[in-house]
Amino acid sequence: MAWQQSKTFHCRPSELLHIEDELTAYYFDRAVFTFGKAVEAELERVSQQGKGKSKRTQAQINMARQQVLNRWVGGPRQFRDPAGMGRPGVEIPTRTVVPPPAR
């Protein structure tokens, strides 16, 4: 959001969020820029039309772009990610073991 707004309003992302500390603003702007450019590059890559038999429809391109966005910003996934187990924020189902009653 900060990336698109900063491009639209021609200002730094830190200005949008009123970050006053210069060093914090610098690192925030740098992180937003790096993230924004990486997402845009991948979106551009999957938006390539293709040639000949490999030519894709606009619907296929839109679906590929949505999948890229979902990967980058954590949108809904079509399938469970088995590699997601153990990542921060991913709940791992556990069984509660009840000890036998004391005698």
List the helices and strands and how they pair.
Elements: H1 2-9, H2 13-16, H3 22-46, H4 58-73
Helix pairs in contact: 3-4
Summarize the structure.
This protein has 103 residues and is mostly helical. Helices cover 51% and strands 0% of the residues. The chain has one domain.
- Which range does the strand content fall in? under 5%
Number of strands: 0
Q: What is the general shape?
A: flat
Q: Gyration radius, to the nearest Å? A: 22 Å
Q: Give the SSE order as H and E letters.
A: HHHH
Low-confidence stretches: none
Counted by DSSP, the helix tally is 4
- Kindly report how far apart the N and C termini lie: 61 Å
Specify the helix fraction band. Answer: 40-55%
Would you tell me the overall average pLDDT?
80
Largest sheet: none
Going by helix content, strand content and strand pairing, the class is mainly alpha
Count of individual domains: 1
Please, could you describe this protein's structure?
It is a single chain. With 103 residues, the protein is an all-alpha fold. It has one domain (2-84). 51% of the residues lie in helices and 0% in strands. It has 4 helices and no strands. Helix 3 runs antiparallel to helix 4 (58-73). The radius of gyration is 22 Å and the shape is flat.
Features:
103 residues, 0% strand, flat
